[in-house]
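Most newcomers find our protein records easier to grasp once they have seen one. To make this concrete, we reproduce a full record directly below:

…
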Amino acid sequence: MTTPNKTPPGADPKQLERTGTVREIGSQAVWSLSSCKPGFGVDQLRDDNLETYWQSDGSQPHLVNIQFRRKTTVKTLCIYADYKSDESYTPSKISVRVGNNFHNLQEIRQLELVEPSGWIHVPLTDNHKKPTRTFMIQIAVLANHQNGRDTHMRQIKIYTPVEESSIERR
């Protein structure tokens, strides 16, 4: 069990992008959900608005599936959660899995969240800090605070490293 990477608490992942070392690639993926209440689906999860959210509508685990058309290098996953607003809908245990498809997913991180507030930065790297190459990421909500049934996730971002140019600048 790992704890999420603690960049400055609640740090906006757009700050990561401004460093020029990563870029957000969620728009290159096909997103699907295990369930959702009408009007609380993928569009809300990806709309850059912290006031909107995905709300599941079914039994656990609640799943967010992110599939790329080609094998893609991923470095960091950022999830926005807000216990003060969402209470029992807030995830308390999350599994992050990667693989080629639904049939060979492997868990690479399991997180325990205690009343999270803000951005949670999850490294998608191996033991040598090398980014993961994958066709698919699955985020599974295994449990919620206060034994809540359905879950809220406000935003999810996925980052790839920006490749260093091999051309020397003079």
In short: Residues 14-18 form the longest helix (5 residues). Confidence is low (pLDDT under 50) at residues 5-9, 165-170.
